Amino acid sequence: MPSLFSAYPLGGLTLPNRAVMAPMSRVRAAAGGLATPAMATYYAQRATAGLIVSEGVQPSLVGQSNPGTPGLHTDEQVASWRQVTDAVHVNGGRIFAQIMHGGRVSHQDTTGFQPVGPSAVPGEGSVFTLSGPQPMPVPRALETDEVPQHARAYADAGRRAVDAGFDGVELHGANGYLISQFLSSNANLRDDRYGGSVTGRIRFAVEAAAATVEAVGAARTGIRLSPGGGFWGVVEKDAAELNIALLEELARLDLAYVHLEATTDEDVLLRLRRTWPGALIVNPTVPNGPTQTGLTEADHWLNQGADLISFGRGFLANPDLVERLRTGLPVARVEQATFYQGGDAGYITYPTYQHVA
Ligand SMILES: Cc1cc2nc3c(=O)[nH]c(=O)nc-3n(C[C@H](O)[C@H](O)[C@H](O)COP(=O)(O)O)c2cc1C
User: Fold this and answer.
1) For the segment 272-306, what is each residue's pLDDT rounded down to a tens digit?
2) 22 alpha carbon to ligand 1 midpoint, in Å?
């Protein structure tokens, strides 16, 4: 079994260890979806991760989910991200941008547009807006000839990400956002080529990935999936068949990696491991599992064939998570109240381990 602390070649990069910082929205971007100096500090503090995957970044205004999230659809946004990618690289790190189109998990008060989705089916729960949580709006179902432009938005954002100095991009195909809505059997009720059968429902994800590969190259393109996950009310009634079919198509594109959340039974995840021939990142957090995962869960999945392991909250609260896990130092717990509150507290204030004599 490989050690979490051994090097791994990913795309054109050599990762010094196999611990990936999972994407986490922190809603601290400046007006206009711009990255800030505090964001540069936050990511640079965590540069000892084998790979950092950024918070979800919207590829278009209509694709924005929450207020305060950054974008990659204007030149100003590209320029603002350079301080982040430079800071990470100066500290010896590597960073991919997660491209996240919210689809129906969005609100007109945030973007100025009625949200779009595969079908006019609202998500479950409430969506955050500047005036507080509001019921999820009914999205506008995309016309068949509009769908390709939303798939291409991931590629355009990918091109901008590379211009901004990112080492690559991860398409957010997980957690109930646009790609996941197309994969879903209850958010996607379409009867055109983007819906219905498994082949129809995976088409949007495959087109988004293919367009991104064409724009920035396969070595710079990864994708995140949450097989069978029920975020914002999405259901994948045939998770195993659907995700196997998707990975078979994605394998033809030779993506840099697939990033799976442990949102379905382990035997399905192992079938997905066997289907996907390339690099596999596993986020080992299971619903109702330990609140912060560590070396035990990492070793379990490395033993089951994962190549890389991602940690979200572990990296949020421990900029030096890799060193703490490697040397057995205590790991700090997250403070949930500061996840999305803005400002520096609970963002760039988590210290590296301090020895007290
Ligand atoms: C504050 C916060 C923000 C998150 N934002 C994102 C996101 O933007 N994109 C994404 O794919 N997952 C997001 N997640 C999910 C994490 O990437 C991860 O899958 C989840 O936290 C479970 O892993 P963990 O137990 O290691 O934290 C977020 C999680 C947290 C705690």
Assistant:
1) 999 999 999 999 998 777 789 999 999 999 999 99
2) 6
Beta-bridge partners for 135: 126
Domain-located, residue 350: no
- Helix 37-45 to helix 75-90 angle (10° resolution) is 30
Contact 177, 105 (CB under 8 A): yes
Helix (H, G, I), strand (E, B) or coil at 154: helix
Which candidate in 177, 194, 257, 347 is catalytic? 177
Give the domain extent around 15.
Answer: 8-338
Cα–Cα distance measured from residue 295 to residue 288, given in angstroms and rounded to the nearest whole number: 18
The whole-model pTM stands at 0.98
The answer to whether the beta carbons of residues 172 and 224 sit under 8 Å apart is: yes
Pair 267, 273: CB distance under 8 Å: no
Per-residue pLDDT at 201: 98
Nearest CA to ligand 1 atom 24: 312
Q: Tell me the pLDDT tens digit for each residue of 143-185.
A: 999 999 999 999 999 999 999 999 999 999 999 999 999 999 9
Which has the closest alpha carbon to 242: 209, 264, 220? 264
| Eight-class DSSP state of 330 | -
- Residue owning the nearest CA to atom 16 of ligand 1: 312
Distance of CA 13 to the CA centre of its chain: 19
Residue 351 lies in a domain: no
Total number of domains constituting the chain = 1
Ligand 1 atom 11, closest CA: 23
> What is the CATH classification number for the domain harbouring 29?
3.20.20.70
Tell me what the pLDDT averaged over the chain comes to: 97
